[in-house]
Specification:
It comes from Pseudoduganella flava. This protein is mainly α. It is built from four helices and five strands; from the N terminus they run H-E-E-E-H-H-E-E-H. The chain has a three-stranded antiparallel beta sheet, with no helix packed on it. A two-stranded antiparallel ribbon has the order 4-5.
């Protein structure tokens, strides 16, 4: 480069560097509604220093002086220490535990659904048997020898009573 170009480029570089530092002079603070405010102007005097999240270098308010000036309030609780973030092993153990619980819950749901289906089928069969007994037709069964035997009226009445009991207690 020629010497004249250096003479022009050097002041421009210094000016550019000065502008960049001014651009970094940003304030970030939280207003009364809890909304973060981003600006190049300092926050109003009503904003306590504890809510100022970022200030330009050299303009950070001294929180120690502000806290020392504030009277001690007995109703204020001491700050709760932050809970440490769980380790990877702890997170993996929690994940495995949740998966196991989900698998057990799914198994219980499947078993419950199967039991409900079996109960519904048993209730349908009991209702069908009750309708057949109440129809008045002759009803036969197989005895221990495999021979066909017709039910007596007393046996039919006993079977109808058992069916009514089952329908009243298990089938709603």
């Amino acid at each position: 480069m020629k010497s004249t170009q250096w003479l022009v480029a050097a002041p421009l570089g210094v000016l550019l560097a000065a502008c960049c530092t001014l651009a970094q002079a940003q304030w970030v603070w939280v207003n009364d509604k809890g909304v973060k405010q981003f600006t190049d102007q300092p926050p109003p005097a009503s904003v306590p220093p504890a809510r100022i999240l970022k200030a330009p270098r050299g303009q950070q308010p001294d929180l120690r002086k502000e806290l020392a000036e504030q009277p001690a309030d007995e109703t204020q609780r001491p700050p709760v220490p932050a809970k440490p973030r769980p380790t990877l092993a702890e997170r993996n153990a929690d994940y495995a535990k949740r998966r196991e619980e989900a698998a057990q819950q799914a198994q219980q749901n499947a078993t419950s659904a199967q039991n409900q289906a079996e109960d519904a089928a048993a209730c349908d069969a009991t209702r069908s048997n009750q309708r057949m007994l109440e129809s008045g037709i002759r009803v036969s069964t197989m005895d221990a020898n495999g021979e066909r035997v017709f039910l007596t009226e007393q046996q039919k009445a006993e079977q109808m009573r058992r069916n009514r009991d089952v329908l009243a207690t298990r089938c709603k």
